[in-house]
Amino acid sequence: MKLIKTISLILLIVVISKAQPISFVKVNGKNFVDSYGNPILLKGINLGNWLNPEGYMLHFKNVNSYRLIDYVIKELVGPEEAKKFWKNFRDNYITRDDIEFIKKSGFNHIRVPFNFKLFLIEDEPEIQLEEGFKRLDDVISWCKEFNLYVVLDMHAAPGGQTGDNIDDSWGYPFLFESKEAQETTIKLWKKIAERYKDETIILGYDLLNEPIPHYLENKEELNKLLEPLYKKIASAIRSVDKNHIIFLGGSQWNTNFKIFGSPFDSNLAYTFHKYWMPTEQKEIQEYIDFRDKYNVPIWLGESGENDNEWIKSFRELLEKNEIGWCFWPYKKMESTRGVVSFKKTKEWDEIIKYAEGSRKNFEEIRKNKPSREIVIKALNDLIENIKFNNCIINHDYLKALGLGN
User: What whole-number distance in Å separates Cα of residue 391 and Cα of residue 53?
Assistant: First the structure.
């Protein structure tokens, strides 16, 4: 009987250890280290378009941010049906099946881009929403089950940190000039950290995605404001969470590390993004130099949107330099430039035609709408097609990442 109890206890420990790491991933010099102090080479994928939809991943061009897509859906079916659509979209775009597949494919982490609007009302930030936390709770739970690390990424911050479609903002990074937006951002990160402070499956917090674009005339002035804001956010996080890694991205779409001084926290990592450049050592050398100078880890938080040959070449370059990576994106409509894709229907083409057409007044909105029958079919088919079992696996893309069967 004693032997049986001992074996049962061992099996229970094994099951638990597979479900979730026994302690937090930490920074140790230039490395990320696991519960046992072993270095981890991060190999991940971004769950883009789930909690912060981007138009191009649904084949829109001008309608390229969440709020603009939302306007189109509301014009077509009204606010009540639009609300139901977005719930169904979030329910089905990423599910337990997707997370299980990601793990089985060989990835060891995901990055979860989210929009602050799922957590609070933009115009009334004191009004809190539970939708964002529900979605994070779900994906964290699935990742615990399959032992897949999670990076939480504020892709769209209050006020906007980029002023472009990717942060669903109003054409300018008002975050850096608005005290209220900064306070809202700080409070939201503190609330997130407080909720998830004990979750060892969470690798860390990516504070702001791709802040401050390169084309702004005043970018140098805004650059000076970025690290001070990072310090304020980090201080709020550390008041409730001493354990998780904090990821800091450079300015100009996460490419400019010149804005950083010496690391101000013992558990910091730095993240860069690189797209559409030659896959040569010189393209990443400045980040390696930064790593060596400050003895800190660096991580490629985004790259991709390219052919498989380029993906393979860049991934190999990163691994040669012992740089972990997280490519973009996991899933989008009819594309081989991602891990999986889903079908575009002829009815969805009608939605695109309407969205990209002239809608400058109410007369044109009424005149140019597809029939309600077409609209309902397009929306329903989209929800069906985004389900994992109906998606197409891009095996060559996985192969380029050195993963898959």
Answer: 18
Q: How far is Cα 173 from Cα 194, in angstroms, rounded to an integer? A: 27
With contact defined as beta carbons under 8 Å apart, do 93 and 58 qualify? no
pLDDT in the model for residue 18: 53
DSSP state of 371: P
Residue 316's CB is within 10 A of a number of other CB atoms, namely 13
Residues in the chain, pLDDT under 70: 1-20, 405
Strand partners, 150: 110, 202
CB 266 within 8 A of CB 219: no
- CA atoms in the 13 A half-sphere facing the CB of 66: 23
Instruction: Return the SS3 of 74.
Output: helix
Three-class SS state of 126: coil
Residue 324: both structure tokens together: 């972990």
Determine the 3-state secondary structure of 317 from DSSP.
helix
Mode of pairing for the β-strands spanning 31-33 and 26-28: antiparallel
